Amino acid sequence: MDQNTTEWLQARAGKITASRMCDVMAFGKRDGKPLKSRQDYIGDIVAELLTGEPKEQVKARPLDWGHDVEAAARVAYEAETGEVVQQVGFLTHSLLPYIGCSPDGLIGGDGQMQIKCPNNPAVHIATLRDGMPEEHIAQVQGEMFVTGRAWSDFVSFDPRMPEHLRLYRQRIKRDEAYIEQLAAACESLWAEVQTYITYLNEKAA
């Protein structure tokens, strides 16, 4: 299926997705307690499971920009690396079907990619200087957790920049220690989702 279609949105509904792994991992640094974003995400999943409908997607100019430019980023990546990128829809974990992801492409037998096309060129410039922003670690490692692949090329692309600065790519290797923490956080979140649904059903009985 193509990403961002009705079919794709339906496939993701009621599942933990890599794009929200930052919320799955949202615990206080001092006390380790769940933060509001994690609790809100639990509510989102419960609502999708009970209604069978995906959460309404936010419509915003930055998101539209990213979707429009992504294809050009993929072409630029293929031209620079010589790799052939296989586009995919929504993939689920082989043993934990309630967890899934939508990588922006699979590469060979061991790789994949995640493309970011920030609407604000300053974000792209900061990535050129400092590398992949920390905020994307959970998503990129989460996608490798789902697919089982060994590496992911993080790509930032801005066609408005001078040609030699348009494409940034960084090879991110699979981090087993981080993925172990991610898996535990996903399992505990899913258990909370089930407890929440049981509570609502019992209260209504």
From TrEMBL:
Gene3D superfamilies: 3.90.320.10. Residues 7-149 form the YqaJ viral recombinase domain. One of its GO terms (molecular function) is endonuclease activity. The keyword Nucleus does not apply. SUPFAM superfamilies: Restriction endonuclease-like (SSF52980). InterPro entries: NF-kappa-B_Signaling_Reg (IPR051703), PDDEXK-like_dom_sf (IPR011604), Restrct_endonuc-II-like (IPR011335), YqaJ_viral_recombinase (IPR019080). CDD domains: PDDEXK_lambda_exonuclease-like. It comes from the Bacteria. Coiled coil: none annotated. Keywords: Endonuclease, Hydrolase, Nuclease. This is Putative phage-type endonuclease. It comes from Frateuria terrea.
